[in-house]
Input
Amino acid sequence: MQVSQLDFQILSWKKNLNEIKKIRTVVFLQEQHIPKELEWDEYDKSALHFGLFDKSCLVAYARSIENNVYWIGRMAVQKEYRNISIGSRLLQLVIAFLQDINFQKDIFVSAQVQAIHFYEKNNFSVRGKTYLDAGIVHTDMILRR
Output
């Protein structure tokens, strides 16, 4: 796939709600069969939201929640943009943004076990045991410094 220059943006839950809901609905509700009541949560309104746009289309998304540490989650990449490093590009931009805010805070992800290798390639290490979240096995991972 030929991708034009991707545009990294900090998103607004209010302003970009339709785009955010569209990508998360496709990836999490339709592809991964996450129940709707588990996908949309109390963190959405206060989280930081990030996106990569190809022209005017949101092709990759992540959010971050802060509570003594940063948690990056809800990583979603449109199917036709997968396996060409778009997810890694977004993750690295989100990490850089969060470290600019506060370099001292640890950065974690709650990774689906099938995505552990992806996060390891992006400098994360497994930290803890596996657990079920929305019926999918996850493990916590921390960004190596």
Remarks:
- Residues 9 and 40 are 21 Å apart (CA to CA).
- The mean pLDDT is 95.
